[in-house]
Amino acid sequence: MKKNEIICPVEYAVDLLGGKWKMPIIHALTSNGVLRFKELERMLGGITPKMLTTQLRSLEEDGLVERKIYPTVPPTVEYKLTTIGESIKPMINELKNWGLYHQGLKK
């Protein structure tokens, strides 16, 4: 998708948030605020460090996640949602509610 190309807003949102790991990462940050890399890795069970790095960089590039590096040895890196990322919270909550409702229907 080109930077200035006008597309369907749903397609745009899916392009930003799509994939197996972006929504779980955003959900973890929504639920917990600031998290370190290893905390995210443990919470997301099954994600490789390389994939987590790739997804976090993508979310950071899109302006949804902010990374802060502390000058320690080894470096401490924390992630949190940006203001734009925070605006996703209502949608995450609705998806959570829908998921709970849908799981209840399947029982």
Helix fraction, binned, reads 55-70%
Number of strand segments: 3
Unreliable parts: none
Oligomer: single chain
Mean of pLDDT? 91
Strand order of the largest sheet: 1-3-2
- CATH secondary-structure class: Mainly Alpha
The overall number of domains is 1
**Biggest beta-sheet profile:** 3 strands, antiparallel
Which architecture would the CATH scheme give at its second level? Answer: Orthogonal Bundle
Structural class: alpha+beta
Overall spatial form: globular
Give the termini separation: 40 Å
CATH superfamily: Winged helix-like DNA-binding domain superfamily/Winged helix DNA-binding domain
Q: Measured on Cα atoms, how large is the radius of gyration? A: 15 Å
Report on the architecture of this protein.
- This protein has helices at 9-17, 22-32, 37-43, 49-61, 83-86, 89-106, and strands at 35-36, 65-70, 76-81.
- The protein is α+β, with helices and mostly antiparallel strands.
- It has one domain (9-106): Winged helix-like DNA-binding domain superfamily/Winged helix DNA-binding domain (Arc Repressor Mutant, subunit A).
- A 3-stranded antiparallel beta sheet has the order 1-3-2.
- The chain starts with 8 loop residues before the first helix and ends with a helix.
- The model has no long low-confidence stretch (mean pLDDT 91).
Brief summary:
By secondary structure, this protein is of the alpha+beta class.
